[in-house]
Amino acid sequence: MDRVGGWGHFAGERGSGYALGRDALEAAFSAYDALGQATELTNLIQQHFQVERLPDIIHPVYHAENSKEIIAGLGKLVMEAADQHDPAAKTIIHTNAAHIGKSISCLINKLFQDSAQDQIIPVVLTGGVFNRLDLFRETIEAEITSHNHLVKMNIPEIEPAEGALIAAMLEAEEL
């Protein structure tokens, strides 16, 4: 067993809802400051927080008890903006999807070493971001393929907590 990434929002959580939300805030404020391109994310974030000016979200975000969850929730806005063909949102998704693909390839190298290029490796994708795998799949697969790996990406039909509950019940039956 091994892992790559997922070390939490301070140490490295690229590809998570939090990373998408953080990147959305960065893109929106960059556009607001005229340092970056205009983005639909600005409007979507203002609507989400029900404010007229983007800076008005600073206090509620930074002083919230659950700021991590608030920022992670903005990941959905990135997907919404990408559906509207917003270039900033598409860049955010591409960057995070590439990181996911690199992480999968790195983990394959750690776990399978020399045999990784000779077989199709099943990869289970969990988390809310993968509810919109259609936005991420192409970039993830391209990154994995560039490392000469073959994978079959799977999304569980049930939530991880439900799977854990089923596993616990099956184990209890065996006792």
Give a structural overview.
- The protein is mainly alpha-helical.
- The chain is built from eight helices and two strands; from the N terminus they run H-H-H-H-H-H-E-H-E-H.
- It has a two-stranded parallel ribbon.
- Helix 7 links the parallel strand 1 and strand 2.
- It is globular, with a radius of gyration of 19 Å.
- The mean pLDDT is 88.
Mean pLDDT across all amino acids: 88
Structural class: mainly alpha
Quick one: how many beta strands?
2
Helices and strands, in order, run as HHHHHHEHEH
Low-confidence stretches: none
Main β sheet profile: 2 strands, parallel
> Helical percent range?
55-70%
Oligomer: single chain
Give the strand content. 5-15%
| Spatial sequence of strands, sheet with the most strands | 1-2
Number of helices: 8
Shape: globular
What gyration radius follows from the Cα positions, in whole Å?
A: 19 Å
CA(first)-CA(last) distance: 26 Å
Task: Summarize this structure as a short list of keywords or feature phrases.
175 residues; mainly alpha
Compact overview of the structure:
58% of the residues lie in helices and 6% in strands. By secondary structure, the chain is mainly alpha-helical. The longest helix is centred in the middle third of the chain and has 26 residues, at 87-112.
Topology, element by element:
Layout: H1 17-32, H2 40-49, H3 58-62, H4 67-73, H5 75-83, H6 87-112, E1 120-124, H7 133-146, E2 150-154, H8 160-174
Parallel strand pairs: 1-2
